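Tokens for chain A. Residues wanted.
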């Protein structure tokens, strides 16, 4: 039997009114989060990026394997290489790989295959999924990898917003070029490319509305 060490959990204790207020305040704050495609080149300290990654790493994961690697890139040569490879894939996407309905759905965002922000932004965070680990020359699988990395990425985006920065979940599919450019090991697979920084002066975002509670939730209440 595998023994585990447990420590006391220190729960927060709020009144019902405090919980309701905190929930409302947090929703209102997160509702201001937007994906941005116009970035400033204003510098963001490495220490800030490190803390954002640590916040993401507090996410739950299957068997606590934490099956993720966050590659933070500020090197101009690497950013240039990533932009060129991403634009090559995106050009193919926009010129035949994407369906007509997909292209129509993208029109409100005013986006195309050009991705200059990948060089302008101070940092690119590339999230990798760790499919397995190698211990003593043996492969040991990680569990619920996609779910775990998805949760960590969501927490990363929340942390970025909380720090007063902006981001974009960029997916120049297929993403395999990132593994090659960053020389990542065979057990890692690219999951998302996330530019992180300040918005450019005068940056604009689409005037979109999020779905209401009734559209995203179903409550099965007790009698």
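Reply:
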């Amino acid at each position: 039997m595998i023994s585990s060490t447990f420590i006391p959990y220190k729960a927060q204790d709020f009144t019902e009114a405090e919980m309701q207020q905190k929930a409302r305040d947090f929703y209102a704050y997160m509702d201001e989060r937007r994906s941005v495609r116009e970035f400033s080149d204003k510098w963001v300290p490495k220490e800030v990026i490190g803390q954002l990654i640590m916040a993401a790493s507090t996410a739950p994961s299957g068997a606590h394997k934490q099956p993720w690697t966050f590659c933070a890139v500020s090197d101009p040569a690497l950013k240039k290489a990533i932009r060129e490879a991403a634009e090559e894939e995106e050009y193919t996407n926009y010129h035949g790989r994407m369906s007509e309905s997909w292209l129509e759905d993208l029109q409100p965002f005013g986006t195309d295959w050009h991705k200059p922000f990948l060089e302008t932004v101070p940092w690119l965070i590339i999230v990798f999924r760790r499919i397995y680990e190698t211990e003593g020359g043996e492969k040991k699988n990680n569990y619920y990898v996609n779910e775990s990395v998805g949760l960590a990425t969501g927490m990363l985006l929340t942390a970025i917003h909380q720090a007063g920065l902006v981001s974009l979940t960029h997916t120049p599919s297929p993403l395999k070029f990132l593994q090659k450019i960053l020389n990542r090991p065979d057990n890692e697979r690219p999951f998302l490319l996330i530019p992180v920084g300040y918005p450019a002066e005068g940056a604009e975002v689409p005037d979109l509305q999020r779905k209401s509670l009734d559209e995203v939730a179903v409550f099965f209440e007790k009698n």
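The first helix runs from residue 16 to 30. The CA atoms of residues 25 and 92 lie 42 Å apart.
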